[in-house]
Structures are given as C-alpha cells and as structure tokens.
Amino acid sequence: MQVDKESWIASLPDAPVFHPSTEEFKDPIAYIQKISITAKSTGICKIVPPAGWNPKFALDLETVKFPTRIQNIANLQKKKMMNKNMPKNCRHNNKKNVEMIVCEVCEGGFHEEVMLLCDKCGKGNHIYCLTPPLTSVPKGNWICLNCRQKNNEIGFEVGKIFPYPTFEKIGNYFKKCYFEGKDLKKVTINDVEKHFWRIVEHREREVEVLYGNDLDTSTYGSGFSDSDSPWNLNNIARVPGSLLSEMKEDILGIIVPWLYFGMIFSSFCWHNEDHYMYSIAYHHFGSPKTWYGVPGNCATEFENAMKAIMPTVFETYPDLLYQLAVMISPRYLIQKGVPIYRAHQMPGEFIVTFPAAYHAGFSHGVNCTEAVNFATADWLQYGFESVKRYRLFHREPVFSHEELILKCSSPQGRKCISTELFKELLSELKRTRDTEVDSRKKILSKGTPLICYYKENDKSNMFHNQHCKICNSQLYLSALTCDCSPTKLVCLDHAAQLCACSTDARCLHLYLTCEELDERVNEASSFLSRSIQNLVTNTIPETPPRKKMKFQIKKEEDDEGGDRDRYLTQMNQLRFIGEMV
Length: 581
Hints:
581 residues; alpha+beta; nine-stranded mixed sheet; four-stranded antiparallel sheet; disordered C terminus
C-alpha cells in the first residue's frame, strides 16, 4: 500500500481520549481496567483529569540540573549503523586460532567450533552466548557489542549537564531560529509534526537537539507535590490492583518514576516497555508532546515491518529495538499494514500505553513529563511472553517474573487482586509450576547427583538475585553449578552450556521443592474457589420473610357418611383454603 509523503499525517487516526468523572478518578487502576477494552485496541490512549485536578509542580526549576543526550534528528531513521573501517574476511573460527581463547561471557574454552572472534578486539564469544545468540557463525565481518558501544554505533551521544534555565533558553532560542521569520504563536501542532518527519525521512536539514531523558526522580526529584493522590506517579505502581505493589525493591523507571526535559524535536524512539508492562506519563508543563502507538496484539507485525524496512541493520543488530535508537516514519509502517494511532499530549494530561504496545514520539518545544510503569493481572500473559523474549535475546530482565507470580499469589499478595483477575494469576502460577517441574525432571533424568534445597530468606542461597551465565535470565526457583567453577550459574535450560564436565560433578540448587510448588498451587486454587463461593453468596438477593399462612381443611358433609375418606383425599391433594393472617 503506497502512502503519500505527507498526507498520512492528516489521515492518521487519533487514539481515544477519556474524561473520567471525579468518582471514577479516585481509583486509577480500576478506571484504566474499565477503559482498557477500548484502549487496548489502539495501544495508547489519553486521559484528561476532572476539572480542578491540577497538582502544583514540586521542583524548583531555578536549581534543577540534569544531564542530556545529543540527538541528531536527521539520523534517527537513516543511521550509519555499519562500521565502514572494519577489515574484510577476518573471521577466525578454526580450532588453531581459538584453542587458547575463552568465551567472554561464560568463560569457557570448550565448544571451540562455535567460538566467534571479534574482528576489532579479537576476543572470543560462543555464538550461543551472544546477545542475542546466533545459530551459526556469520559470514563476513563481526564486531562484538562492547566494541560497537565504544564506537557509539548505537544510541545517542552524551551531552552536557545543564541547569534548567539554561536548557530552557537553548530550547526556546533553537525553536525561534528554526522557524526564522515566523510568529511562533502561529506555528501549529501540525506544522511541527510535518517538519519533524521531513527531517527524519528526507534529511532536509541537519538538526541536533538536546534531551534530558530517564532522570531518576529519587535523585533529581519528582514533579508531583500531592503525596497522597493515587495518580501521583510515585504511588501508582503500588496502589491496590497493581501487581508491582508486592515488589520490595525501588526499581528505577518501574517503581520509581523517570523525569524528562525536552525541547523541540526531542524524540523517544520506537520501543515497548520493560516486561511488556503498562506505562503512564504525565505532562507537567510546556509545549505539547506527540505520541504514536501500535496495538500490543500487532507487535509482531510491527517488528516484521521494521526488519523488512531495514534488513541489513537488523541482521547486524538483531536486538536493535531494545536500544531505543531508531525512529522509522509511520508512513513506512502503514505501507506494511501496521496500524498506527496518534495522540497529542497537552500539559495536565496523562498518556497510557498498554502491554506490549510499541510507541514513539517527540516534543514540540521545551516541556517536562514524568513516567512510570505498572502491571495488573491482565498483563500476566504479556509478562510471560516478555521473559521468553529476554531469554531469546540474552537480555537481563528487570525483575524475576517467577518471584512476582509467587508473591502475588501468596496470602498477603492476593488481598489487592479481584477474584476475576486472580483467575489469570492462578493460571500463570500453574504454568510457572509446570514449566519448572518439567525442567527439573529433565536435569535429574541425566543423573545430577547432588541437590541443595533453600528455604525462603535463606542467606546461604547462592543463586538469589543471580543471572544465568548464558541467557541472563534471573535465577529464582533453580540453578545449576559444577565443581569446576562453583560460582558460575546457569538456568536449567542451558545445562549443556555450563561446562564439558560429566553430570556427576554438578549440583542442582532449588528454592521450593516440587511438592511445595504443588502446595502453593493447591492453596491458591482453594482460595479462588472460596472467593467465587463468597461472591455468589453475597450477590444472591436477600429473600424477604414470608408471611405466615394458616390453613384449614375444608370438610364437606357426606350424606352417605364418607367424611373420613373425603378428609384423606383432601389431604393428599393438598386442597387448602388459605387465610392470610
């Protein structure tokens, strides 16, 4: 499908906008769940708070200082991602050259037939230890991730630290110069949007802007002054109904909000959230922000379209979408059949992105926003898929999905979850149990002799908060080690890559036995059954008390003396005459 270079901007459908009542606004999780049936289908939505809800900005802008990134807007789509100075045909993957080389990831020197050497630094990596892993030795040149990052081939250049007043002056001056000769009051949202995509798509001008992004609010401060409001983004991750309320750690960007200072054309490139979670962003002040969203159920179509548009780049950098460094125009995505929705965010408005939804956008001038994540029980299926994807790309998860499931299904965790959503949690708990039990059976079937069990809060648990040396998955329920390298841990799926030793030298470390996992599932199932029964009982209308009835048997005279027979017949047929009392 061909799309005109600029007509797509005018024809792009708007994301839904919601206006909660004062009563609905009291519970953010309940309200977002209510609108999700409609809003999930567009990936993003806008929420306009009720009149009168306008929290005072809490930071002193005269004293705030923050680091920035330098963004070359003309290179967002046409990045020079390939290193032109790489030597050609310098692959060293034969045994002669790698027999003294060890893998930089797993520190093993075995499996030399799949050892890959960097053409820049010469260091080795097993192809299955790479991030993401490879299935075969690639042709041509290959540069390791560390060398690519040192060469700044991915991401944005680090800028200076600016006080906010200086940043504001730079941003306002740049916008004035860009629209030289125009009255900025007459520059519309549509004008800025067209100029942005002309730069990105056609590189009409070399434009560099600054962006103060991902600023830790525990360090730089939060813009929210109302500490009690559930819509304060410092609270929303842990309000009732959010599964993240069971997490003790203050994870930056997940539990603790991030602050963003932008100027015209400051961009956040295509991505979806960590663990495919919900996100919510509040616009504190300044110029509008434009957002583009893809429904979560179209994430695969989006990824396939990106790879089709930039095949060479994705072949070199398969995990490019995790880098938040590429901004493909929605025009090309629409041509590939990907649905795109747009929202213009004004000060005082929220934008919500839904699980797995890819989104991107840019600022129209100097502004300040704040964002954080949250997760409800309907997110669980997406969370499970995100963990599988992390393992595929060998990326460290932000938290343990298994740990979150077990905590939320515990007596303490289930208090803030509705009965309907607890069904989804129980389903995920069963899946976690089944997957873990199957993996343990496979390991034990190969003869691992030593097993170490750990109880909750056991300080001797050597694999708590550790990651698999191969795929970087967080180890929570189990891990595997070998006597040859006791501190090297792998998940059960990567037992074969642990080392070349026999299984007799290995140890299986377990948190919770299979029986204890079964108990957790059975206890959660019983709780759900009781909750459903209580729900049914409490929803049955109370039956009003019946009025008392006094019944009298009508005895008819019988000329032939059949009084007794007639009396019994009347009793059997329940011929009553009722008198209301």
